[in-house]
């Protein structure tokens, strides 16, 4: 699949405020400063679509982008530590839960993990909560250009082993680099195939 058009539509604070008309949604989430906005810009080929920042916790709304006049790419707030007040962190956590629990148009949630670090408890807890809710998701390792080939392979296997204790079969894994474009085509093709399968099933 190729993205030929990506347009910012709206920023909302609840799933109930989603744009109209409703469309299929692919959502992106991860710990603060995992490189989410950079990946979204890489996938869409628009370096200024999602706002990037060196400061974690910049995304504080549910941001909707209309892709190819067909489906929404949804940029969710990051979870985990950010330099925000306790009250604000609680608000964002509620916003994330509301979206995940109430977005009937969600096709797949991409959970971003920083390839430079081992799987953290906060990530595993989040993944387990998705499993308990039956939310379909895929794992996206970011910043893979920061690791050598062998180190990256070892990190991926270690993460798969940890997640494999809870899931069988494993969710789909993508190794990406926003700077180099690594994994971009694989992710786009994966989304394209999902949309095609959904269209075929609805015929």
Shape: globular
Fraction of residues in helices? 25-40%
The portion of residues forming beta strands comes to 15-25%
Uncertain parts: 53-57
Kindly state the number of beta strands: 7
3D architecture notes:
The chain is α/β, with parallel strands linked by helices and 203 residues long. The protein has one domain (6-201): Rossmann fold. The chain contains 5 helices and 7 strands; from the N terminus they run ββαββαβαβαβα. The chain has helices at 36-44, 86-102, 121-133, 149-164, 184-201; strands at 6-12, 25-30, 62-67, 71-75, 106-114, 137-142, 173-175. It has a 7-stranded mixed beta sheet with strand order 1-3-4-2-5-6-7, with helices on both faces. β3 (62-67) and β4 form a beta hairpin. The longest helix has 18 residues, at 184-201. The radius of gyration is 16 Å and the shape is globular. The protein starts with 5 loop residues before the first strand and ends with a helix. The model is unreliable at 53-57 (pLDDT under 50).
Characteristics:
single chain, alpha/beta, Rossmann fold, seven-stranded mixed β-sheet
Brief write-up:
The protein has 203 residues and is of the alpha/beta class.
SSE arrangement:
Layout: E1 6-12, E2 25-30, H1 36-44, E3 62-67, E4 71-75, H2 86-102, E5 106-114, H3 121-133, E6 137-142, H4 149-164, E7 173-175, H5 184-201
